[in-house]
Design goal:
Blueprint (H helix, E strand, L loop, with lengths): L11 H14 L13 H14 L4 E3 L6 H5 L8 H5 L4 H9 L21 H10 L8 H13 L11 H12 L6 H7 L2 E8 L6 H8 L5 E5 L2 H4 L6 H12 L6 H24 L3
Parallel strand pairs: 1-2, 2-3
Helix pairs in contact: 12-13
Length: 275
């Protein structure tokens, strides 16, 4: 009997095509991506970076919710909850290009239905990922995905759900819990962003757990922005936490001064407490 396989011949061109496609999907970041193109300047930049790249990080403006670190069991949620929904830089870019905020899981002032399917939110984001080329947002997203989460293929509409699965699996691992990442990043000082109405309960728990390098900073946006929908409720909360009945401008300023002084006292206490 004739072996039918003798008529099967290899197609080098087809094999090369598959290899090329695989290479095209690979996501590799240049180590010089933040440096100048000029060779002389790039050499200096490499030297300077090598001297500081392993130093501890000092983050005076972290935007990290203290509740995320106060709870040892806290997790970062889904890829959409981590990368997209809370990021106003991403939302502003997409909104400027005609993507509704509600479609990205963000609520607005009207009663439009908000997308709850996080995979669909992720897919819409990836479908528009080209908008972030040559932007700081695109730069740090690529760095996070490749260097922190180990994503190996380029983020495209076709790869979006595979990468979502990869990120979801990583986020479920203990080493991607907030406190584990805090240790991994080598952070010497992290300042959270705290409202004027914050009673600092989360910072008390952090302090009790020995995380005295996490300190509060005063950001009273919600009580100084008169256009904020819940501004009146925020003033009531300010009155309660400061113990001052805010009824006019003078009492309003006194309450703000009291809360700022409270945050400063707490930060100094943490500063003088050894880790």
């Amino acid at each position: 009997m004739m072996n039918e396989n003798v008529f099967v011949t290899k197609n080098p061109a087809a094999e090369q095509s598959v290899a090329e496609k695989t290479a095209d999907r690979a996501w590799r970041l240049s180590p010089d991506r933040c440096f100048a193109a000029d060779p002389a300047q790039r050499t200096i930049a490499r030297t300077l970076y090598a001297a500081v790249q392993d130093l501890p990080l000092i983050a005076p403006h972290g935007h990290v919710p203290p509740a995320l670190l106060a709870d040892p069991d806290a997790r970062l949620g889904t890829p959409a909850e981590l990368f997209i929904i809370p990021d106003h830089y991403i939302l502003r870019m997409l909104y400027s290009q005609g993507v509704a905020l509600e479609a990205m899981g963000a609520s607005s002032t009207d009663d439009a239905a908000v997308e709850r399917d996080h995979r669909r939110i992720w897919q819409r984001f990836v479908d528009h990922f080209h908008l972030f080329r040559a932007t700081p947002t695109g730069l740090w997203l690529a760095d996070e995905l490749v260097n922190l989460f180990g994503v190996q293929e380029r983020l495209t509409s076709e790869s979006a759900q595979r990468i979502y699965d990869h990120l979801e699996a990583r986020l479920a691992q203990p080493e991607f819990a907030p406190r584990a990442l805090l240790d991994r990043f080598g952070i010497e000082l992290l300042c959270t962003t705290d409202a004027a109405t914050d009673a600092l309960d989360h910072h008390r728990r952090l302090h009790a757990d020995g995380l005295t390098h996490i300190r509060p900073t005063f950001r009273p946006d919600a009580v100084v922005n008169l256009d904020y929908p819940a501004w009146r409720q925020q003033i009531d909360a300010l009155s309660a936490v400061a113990g001052i009945d805010v009824v006019d401008y003078t009492s309003y300023v006194r309450a703000l001064e009291q809360r700022r002084a409270a945050l400063r006292r707490w930060a100094r206490w943490q500063l003088t407490t050894p880790r």
